[in-house]
Amino acid sequence: MEWRHPSCFEPQLTDEVISFFAKYMLDIYREINYLLSEKYDSNYGRGTSIFDRTYNCFLDMIVNKQCPVDVHLINGSYKLIFQIGNASIRFLKDDFEKPKKKKFLMQQLQSLSLFPLDDHQPHFWRFILNEPKTLDDEPLVVFAGYNLANEVVAYWDSSSITDINHIYLVEPETPTSVELGSPLVEDPEMDNEKEDDDDSEAVNN
After folding, report:
1. Alpha-carbon separation of residue 66 from 7, 47, 57, 61, 200 (angstroms)
2. How far apart are CA 165 and CA 128, in angstroms?
């Protein structure tokens, strides 16, 4: 089945709108992996932190109307379902090509099972954060629309986004050397002689 751009099904799902959310997901992913990269950090800790920060970020932007289009909050719990136009949207971290979290899609499918099956119409949408598979890969956000048969019918990914906040470790610059004169250090024996002279003067006076 040919994948079409999300705006073919919902006009408000433009590149600008989709990339607005995708950029935050990518920035948060990179920030968390940069911050939680010490010996005692784990994939579990990074995963929960990425989800929690993304959830709080999306919820805050939706509630405070900071999105480029009208976004309606459907469920403010950790499921976080929001709606743009007629598109019901959630986010998750998974492998788009080989999804492990099919439960999310099956739950949605069961809730919509009373509707007539339309192979070409997306009924639910997902922002999917795909982690890099190798050190040379970059994280990728896929925005996909699924029909009631759990098949992708609409597709967009973040490969075209250029203005993302990348975090790099920068080697510190070595400061330019400066010639310094010899430090002024007085001979302690000379200090003692001076103190003796001062004492003798005080006694003689």
Report:
1. 21, 25, 11, 5, 83
2. 19
CA R_g for the chain? 31
Q: How big is the CA angle at 110 (ends 109 and 114), to the nearest 5 degrees?
A: 95
Degrees (nearest 5) of the Cα angle 26, 29, 35? 140
Amino acid at 36: L
**C-alpha dihedral, 16 to 66 to 53 to 47, nearest 10°:** -20
- Asked if 21 contacts 161 with a C-beta cutoff of 8 angstroms, the reply is no
With CA atoms as reference, report the closest residue to 67 among 118, 100, 22, 120: 22
Residue range 84-120, pLDDT digits in tens = 999 999 999 888 877 776 655 555 555 555 555 567 8
DSSP structure string for 24-77: HHHHHHHHHHHHS-STT--HHHHHHHHHHHHHHHHHHHHHTT-SSS--EEEE-S
- The tens digit of pLDDT for each residue in 152-186 reads 999 999 998 876 554 443 344 444 555 555 444 45
Q: Give CA–CA dist 147/135, Å, rounded.
A: 34
Quick check: 22 and 124 in contact, CB under 8 A? no
